[in-house]
Amino acid sequence: MDVRLFQNSPTGELVPISGTSHQGDWRHFAFVPEPVTDASPDLTADAYRAVARARAALAALDATAARLPNPRLFRQTALRIEAQATAALEGTYEPLARVIAEEPHEDQDPSLREVLNFVTVAERAYEWNEAGRPWSIPGLAELHRLLLAGTRSERAYHGIRRVQVVIGRRDDAPPTAHPIEAARFVPHPPGDDLTARVRDLLDWMQTDHSATIDPVVAAAIGHYTFEALHPFHDGNGRIGRLFIVLQLHLAGVLTEPTITVSPWFETRRQLYYDALLGVSTTGDWSAWVTLFAEGLAVSADRARTSMLALTEVQSQLKEQLQRSSLRAANARLLIDLAVARPTFTVNQAAEALGIKYAGAKRLIDKMVALEILAEYGERNYNRRFHAPQVLDVLFRGSLR
């Protein structure tokens, strides 16, 4: 890490660190961000305008969700899109078409399992938020364990890290430089103080600061601080971006967490990383908050557009069903399932509808004949089905 860039930082301090590696003993510095407070950072007029746009877009999304009979139908689809993009930001890429067609299981390819685990993590975290469960170190460790389950990092890197890590590599670093000197950023050293700082941050993120800090700005502060502390060996970005939505949800900005934030940031990853680094090096909160708020505004607008489009498709499919000779009440519920779950098996349909496998299969076959549903992919077993019009909306909406 180029220590000179951080020497005069107004947002943290350098602390000495040392260790031993295969290259020998080393000494360097880590950057420790200042503790979060109830004070809002000084922001430019442009930053405040970006925050206002984000608040308006988030309010419009939430109002749209509130008018729908069951806005939770859209949560599963949003999580699949978020899972694919948030993993891609960390260098694990799986096509969206594959992500929406699979469920996590033990014999899965580790990279796909890594992506799908995020859906499990987010669902668990939303359940905790809705149940009023406080955020804590044990809870955070549980989410991290679920994220790494069945992946290459599962055994070695679970929980708050116990080793020093580095982030990125400087463009000007010599090829032979020690990794810690060549790093773009060296976060908080491991130990009890790191755990305490993460605990303090969790407490801060679940406290109402709206009297002094706008919730969008608070989410930007929370995300920056989480990434600067870098509590895990692996998975910081994915957990950190999940907490953006969790924080907005807990603050009441979003009553239903249907927004996906990572697709927008994924196509602007260098701007995203540079803006985060800029807070640490120069204290440029305005650049980071502006980028963050712009991302939220665009993401909320896209989520709202997709939600309205899916609602329209849902109505069209039910009208198509109404015009047919199929009158089974479960047929309308199966359309709801096709909106809520992008692809599904006969077993999943039977469970969702509360009917036997044979009845679910007959119903699906009839709706395939009506061209409301279609088989997804080519499988000889555990076949999956989908509503093509639903996937058309999802793939359009996932474009960055």
Topology:
Elements: E1 12-21, E2 24-33, H1 45-67, H2 75-89, H3 96-99, H4 110-131, H5 137-148, H6 179-182, H7 192-205, H8 215-229, H9 236-250, H10 262-266, H11 269-282, H12 285-323, H13 329-340, E3 344-345, H14 346-353, H15 357-369, E4 374-376, E5 384-386, H16 388-397
Antiparallel strand pairs: 1-2, 3-5, 4-5
Helix pairs in contact: 1-12, 2-4, 4-5, 4-9, 7-8, 8-9, 8-12, 11-12, 12-13, 12-16, 14-15
Give a brief rundown of this model.
The protein has 2 domains: 3-305, Fido-like domain (Fic-like fold); 324-397, Orthogonal Bundle (Arc Repressor Mutant, subunit A). The chain contains 16 helices and 5 strands.
Query: What's the CATH architecture name of the largest domain?
Result: Orthogonal Bundle
* Mean pLDDT level: 90
Number of strands: 5
Helical amount: 55-70%
Q: What is the count of helical runs?
A: 16
Organism: Metallococcus carri
Binding site for ATP: 234-241, 272-273
Pfam families: Fic, Fic_N
GO molecular function: ATP binding
